[in-house]
Amino acid sequence: MNMTEAISRLAARIKERKLRLRRHIELARLRRIRKKNVPQYTYCKNCGTRLEGMYCHHCGQYALDTEQPFWKYVRQYFENVYQFDTKVWRTLWYMFTRPGFLTAEFNAGKINSYVHPFRLYMCISVVFFAVVFMLTGDRVGDLNSMNTGHLKRRIVQQLEQPAALADTTVYLYQAPDLVKVLSMHYGIADVDSLVRYQLVDTPYGLARTTLPRLLVDSCFLHVNIDSQDWDFIRQTRAMEHLNIENWIDGKDYGPDNVAAIRAFPVDSLHVATTDGRDSLVLRPARVYVWNDTKNAEVATLQREQFTNDFLNGLSKWTPFYMMFLLPLFAFMLKVLYYRKHMPYMWHFVHAIHLNTVFLILLSIPLVPLFAYGIDDILSGGETLSYVQRKFAATTIAGFPIAMFLYMFVSFHVVYRQGWIKTLVKSVLFFATFTAIALLVAALLLLWLVVTIDAR
């Protein structure tokens, strides 16, 4: 068998599979129509007209079975408002397994077999933005921690000198934040050698920190140790054999935690009680907090207020931003394929399908952002494991590639042009639309910042 015969057989199999799939879709549609065309009673309960389907042709009332269980009312609500019956699973399945198929079906007039494109997009976008901005609100602390404290320029210059050494050990709160800000905000190289820390308990709690003395003298303040941290240290040091095998609560701690607790300075005092006996009293040493401003609380509140206002603005305007991009997306498709002489609505439906897939795929790279933290991602995974860093990098880098490949195949299916020609147009469209979308997003962000600062 030569190559031509093999290609012919493959093409015949693909064509046969498409016909079989279309017959299956038509059969499912007919079954659904028959199921929904059988009312529970004969006459309309509103006007008394004899029913010929699920809707009265005289007054338009739906033939609702008022004696059905409550869960069926809920299901009918989603079916009638969002068309979310078995259609939604079929729609999503074809959307991701056959790019461009739903757009071609809609353009061919086969609308009722799937969830309407605009309804599906609206539902997905509402869920997406609600969940994203709800989770983003929980990460406001990460955003604020990236700007914690401000070092004077002379201190930064001294830290960049080879003479700067980690020569002082103190107990400091939020040591990981200090490392991230020194590295990211001030661009100090080799921060790990300047600031080394051993956590006592939580990642952003108290830590035994070794760092240059000039940092301690210039931007650290003495504070009392938190009562919970002090109770934790006393409880663990009271163990006869403090090690990672007999650690309390079965938590995942290591030798660094044990070393940080063992080295914590404690003053042992003997005081006389009312009955004249000696009583041993333990007093913890004072610890440090990283703060170089006299009005730290005011600065923190202002920073948190700005972040909250900024996120509120994003949650308000981002959906409008996406809605603005839809007609622009469709217009660019019409210009790119003007020789096809397709109605604008066909391109608009294609834009809706592609943007629905965009929102669903976008949720994947957002997972590490919310699971690990914004500051950890931006700091190069400093507190992340190797697997976590790889997962974050793969999902973030893989998202635009997956979106482009999906759009490329969808263009080929909908507009029925050769692969090479479709590839050239896909690259041109993807680059142009991405540049425009980023420009509009940058203008929106700038406008939000200026608006918030002007308040």
| Ends apart, CA distance between termini | 77 Å
Helix content: 55-70%
Structural class, from helix and strand content? alpha+beta
Q: How big is the Rg? A: 32 Å
Strand content: 5-15%
List the helices and strands in order: HHHHHHHEHHEEHEHHEEEHHHHH
* Count of β-strands: 7
Total DSSP helices: 17
Strands of the widest sheet, in order across it, are 2-3-1-7-4
From the spread of the alpha carbons, the general shape counts as elongated
Number of domains: 4
Main β-sheet, in a few words? 5 strands, mixed
The low-confidence runs, each spanning 5 or more residues with pLDDT under 50, are: 292-296
Mean pLDDT: 77
Describe the structure in brief.
With 455 residues, this protein is an alpha+beta fold. Helices cover 62% and strands 8% of the residues. A five-stranded mixed beta sheet has the order 2-3-1-7-4. A two-stranded antiparallel sheet has the order 5-6.
Describe this structure in words.
By secondary structure, this protein is of the alpha+beta class. The protein folds into four domains: about 1-35; about 35-65, no CATH class; about 150-290, no CATH class; about 295-455, no CATH class. It has 17 helices and seven strands. It has helices at about 5-35, 70-80, 85-95, 100-105, 115-140, 140-145, 155-160, 175-185, 190-195, 215-220, 225-235, 255-260, 295-335, 345-370, 375-380, 385-415, 420-455, and strands at about 170-175, 195-200, 205-210, 220-225, 265-270, 280-285, 285-290. A five-stranded mixed sheet has the order 2-3-1-7-4. A hairpin with a 5-residue loop joins strand 5 and strand 6. Helix 5 (about 115-140) runs antiparallel to helix 13 and helix 13 packs antiparallel against helix 14 (about 345-370).
